[in-house]
């Protein structure tokens, strides 16, 4: 299944939500799964992004739907990139 890297930046509203209800992060992960993707790994980070997520999804359309749905809530801004496993990349270059 294709892999995607999603960088998340919380808005002021999102930070307030996480402060009051940190379990919301796990709830959103469950919602992502009901939309057809799977969270493989997730990291809280310091710097310009608050979270880095590694996702699997069947296609770009599924990830686009997830990005629009989650982003439309106003609590987070997302940037998502497709990722190619390095062994597949090397194979394609050969």
Could you characterize what this model shows?
- The longest helix has 12 residues, at 60-71.
- Strand 2 and strand 3 form a beta hairpin.
- A four-stranded antiparallel β-sheet has the order 2-3-1-4.
- The chain has helices at 12-20, 24-34, 60-71, 86-93, and strands at 3-10, 38-44, 51-56, 76-83.
- By secondary structure, it is α+β, with helices and mostly antiparallel strands.
- 43% of the residues lie in helices and 31% in strands.
- The protein is built from four helices and four strands; from the N terminus they run βααββαβα.
- It has a single domain, classed as Lrp/AsnC effector binding domain/regulation of amino acid metabolism (RAM) domain (Alpha-Beta Plaits).
The fourth-level CATH homologous superfamily is Lrp/AsnC effector binding domain/regulation of amino acid metabolism (RAM) domain
Question: How many domains?
Answer: 1
Q: How much beta, percentage-wise?
A: 25-35%
CATH architecture: 2-Layer Sandwich
Q: Give the end-to-end Cα distance, rounded to a whole number of Å.
A: 22 Å
Oligomer designation = single chain
| Rg from Cα | 14 Å
Helix content estimate: 40-55%
User: Based on helices, strands and strand pairing, what is the structural class?
Assistant: alpha+beta
Low-pLDDT sequence parts: none
CATH topology value: Alpha-Beta Plaits
Task: Encode the helix/strand succession as letters.
Answer: EHHEEHEH
Order the strands across the largest sheet as they lie in space. Answer: 2-3-1-4
Question: Quick check: average pLDDT?
Answer: 96
Name the overall outline: globular
Tally of DSSP helical segments: 4
Tell me about the biggest sheet? 4 strands, antiparallel
Name of the CATH first level: Alpha Beta
The number of strands is 4
